[in-house]
Amino acid sequence: MKKYILIGLGIIVLVPVVFLGYIIYSFEYETKRLINYQPRLTTEVYDRNGNKIANLFSDEHRYYVSYQNIPPMLTEALLAIEDTTFFEHNGVNPDAIMRAIIKDVTSGHLVEGASTITQQLVKNTLLTREKKFSRKFKEVLYSIRIEQELTKEQILERYFNEIYLGHGYYGIKTAADGYFRKPLKELSLKEMAMLVGLPKAPNFYSPTKNYELCLGRANRVVGRMYELGWIDQPTYEKATQERPKVYNDTLSKNSGPYIIDEVMRQLGDAFPDIRSGGYKIYTTIDMRLQEAGYKALQSGRNEIIKRAQDAGDLDENMQRQLNGALISLDPRSGEILAMVGGYDYSLSPYNRVTQAKRQPGSAFKPFLYQVALDSGMSPASMVPDIARTYTYAGDDGEEKTWQPKNYKNEYKGMVTIRDALTHSRNLATINMVSDMGFSKVIEGLRRLGISENLPPDLSIALGTISISPIDLAKYYTMFASGGTLTNPILIREVITPTGQTLRYENKSRQVDTPQQIYLMTSILKDVVTRGTGTGARVGGIEIAGKTGTTNKNVDAWFAGYSPTVETVVWFGHDDNTPMRRSETGGRAAAPVFRYYYEDLLRIYPDTKRSFDLPAGVYQAPTDQNGSENFTDTSAAPDATQEETPKTDEKLVF
Fold first, then answer.
1. Which of 148, 486, 555, 567 could form a disulfide with 334 if both were Cys (CB 3.0 to 4.6 A apart)?
2. Is the pLDDT of residue 270 over 80?
3. pLDDT of residue 404
4. Can you say whether the dihedral through the CA atoms of 415, 416, 417, 420 is positive or negative?
5. What's this model's pTM, rounded to 2 decimal places?
């Protein structure tokens, strides 16, 4: 019996001790959250010129501001309306509490708070908003503890960053940017008063919902400052009469959704807290060119639909499935200037620049001809534009034949490499690849840095590889930069909340000489001036590029460049069904390129207009009654070439 009595007494003693220990532990744990304050912060994404592209956040949209960067008058406005004796009390105001207790006891429940700024901070950060005496008791204890651990300035800093100010804005800096599009240092007194008047009832006094109520509350703040002698009469009168402009912006301010998705994809693994870590991400994008690219793509799509409508061919599938993509970059640095992944993100967030794998068609031909030039041929070299029958073994082992044709079923016999590429002659390209030797061409492509998804047969001459617009743009950098293959990059640097700067650099390598590449550029200039790409001509600037149209008009491309900017445009149906027969790369994609560059020149009129001629490129007369560009590798011929091969020749591949 005595044993059980002792156990009972032990329990009686132990339970209060455990309970008290729990209270002390909870007290310490909760207050440490505020003492070691680490709020969730919004990550900001900017373009290359410092223009905001978007805010990234999860639950709370918050920018952080240190106490040193908070204008003194903003602090005075807050203290005037919320806690005049803030710098004098120890976390609670005894006089205000006594007045509140009398009212609360009389009514039988909490009707008046009498909360100091410290108490408000504790309530908003550590406690609930329920009106109970137990919660109020905790609030007082926590506030006294916080005042013992933090300076008044630290408490104010936490308050200004934690407080909710309506419209999804957490913190004073966030609200100033959202409501007024201003940094704190540029706020007028009236704007400051509007902000500090919001915590009492942020939705009720919201300037975007109840502007007049918000002004009235702000005038009471200004009036209180005048009563206290903190501002003079002229300042008071000016502030009360002011009616600031208020903006009703979205929280994300996302003006480049395709860009933001790609930023998240590239940085998400390295920064798991990207939506709450308060980073500043600077991209390579130029938002003025981004907008120009978007307008150009919209214009091109509208023209395709209008042509179909005029021809009576417009159907629901076309309107639903027709889409496009545009990527523009600096070919030397690889920095992406514009990336439009589709004509309407709200209808489809699928980024066709980075995610769509399509066949480039004839837009791939310049790489094959570059291999030919690097093997010793020149723009004046002759290739057979004739019909040939190719035989190959089918999947069942039986011999099959392939009889490729030119787009318009016309044959020119022997043509120069310049004319073959300028007019995108399929047969000349296929025959050239066949005559050079398929394995030699593949080896040459790999030397240029192109090795992925290469088809194992002569169909490569028709651009049957599977490639995304961003990868095609990467390969075209070798032409646009004078022989350097450069990986496109989207992110310049990331700045952490502690001020550490992480810079991102691209990878590039020299794959050809400026002299050999210039030969190709001179041919691709002809594509634009007199070939399949005349729709891309832009007045006052030299453009080089190549159209691409795949079998049955499933894809339409234009890949081109000026002396400093490269751009790739694609159109097609998302479900890979054919477009109309007339929608070729030259008709559908090239005009979008032109539209974009016309805007680019308006935005940047000092853009370089002419290609440079590298030393080592010379001109010499040719057998075609003209002159041509040559190099030491692609030298001028000493004699005329062989006669046209017979058209019934049968070859094996």
1. 486
2. yes
3. 80
4. negative
5. 0.88
